[in-house]
Amino acid sequence: MSEFFFVFKTVLFSALVLMLLQLRLGETTLEQKAEGWIYQSRLGNEMQTVARGAIRAGREGFVWASDRTSEIADSIETKEERFSTNRSR
């Protein structure tokens, strides 16, 4: 039963936050102001830079790992070919 109350409180809190974010202050809502602050803040820019770097590192790491596994697979195939030709003699 405590799980139900947790979910209920969470939904209620989320709905309250969403309603507050829709309040207009001047010509914009709180949501628009918060979104603008996130996009224009230095922290947001730094986080975007970190995310770009992480994506680039992931891509380069994947390419490196893919190349390494291809080299290993080729090496194994070459050894198998040598072994099979030596056995057939």
Summarize this structure briefly.
By secondary structure, the protein is mainly α. Helices cover 88% and strands 4% of the residues. The chain folds into two domains: 1-40; 47-89.
Structure description:
With 89 residues, the chain is mainly alpha-helical. The chain folds into two domains: 40 residues; 43 residues. A two-stranded antiparallel ribbon has the order 1-2. A hairpin with a 2-residue loop joins strand 1 and strand 2. Helix 2 crosses helix 3. The protein is elongated. The N and C termini lie far apart (75 Å).
Number of strands: 2
Structural domains: how many: 2
- Share of helical residues: over 70%
Radius of gyration: 28 Å
Mean pLDDT figure: 86
Low-confidence region ranges:
none
Give a quick account of the main beta sheet: strands, pairing sense, barrel closure: 2 strands, antiparallel
Kindly report the spatial arrangement of strands forming the biggest sheet: 1-2
> Structural class, from secondary structure content?
mainly alpha
User: Could you give the order of the helices and strands?
Assistant: HEEHH
Question: What percentage of the residues does DSSP assign to strands (E)?
Answer: under 5%
Shape: elongated
- By DSSP (H or I, 4+ residues per run), the number of helices equals 3
Give the N-to-C terminal Cα separation. Answer: 75 Å
Defining key terms:
3 helices; 2 domains; 88% helix; mainly alpha; 89 residues
SSE layout:
Elements: H1 2-21, E1 24-25, E2 28-29, H2 30-40, H3 42-88
